[in-house]
Amino acid sequence: QVQLVESGGGLVQPGGSLRLSCEASGSTLVDYAIGWFRQGPGKEREGVGCISRRGGPTYYVHSVNGRFTISRDNVENTVYLQMNMLKPEDTAVYYCAAAFRFACMLIEGSYQDWGQGTQVTVSS
Q: Concatenated DSSP letters for 18-79?
């Protein structure tokens, strides 16, 4: 089991950037596929992107492809979600989740451990 804590959320203007962090404890994050999900106001939770175990491939949904980037810092035991060119429709609570498998996928049920979420608000 791995404990996850997200941070880095906040209020940003459209076109701005934020970097979210997903810090792990209790296990080595490099052994897990990590997914990022979000839940906007009045919406169901949806997948944003994910990174496979040990530097494996990443995957992004179409709406964020080219704007968001997921990366790992194995020394810090942290996964990051760099978000650029933010839009009001990116406003949501963002969650990271861990799956003890190689390949990542954006299916909530494939993830065993979840963080508590961090709020991102994109507004002028």
A: EEEEEEEESS-GGGSEEEEEEE-TTS--EEEEEE-GGG--EEE-TTTBTTEEEEEETTTTEE
Whole-number Cα distances in Å, 120 to 6, 8, 16, 26, 63 = 11, 8, 12, 26, 16
pLDDT digits 0-9 by tens, 32-61: 999 999 999 999 999 999 999 987 899 999
The residue whose two tokens read 């941070």 is 7
Cα 12 to Cα 106: distance, rounded to the nearest angstrom:
26
Rg (CA), the chain: 13
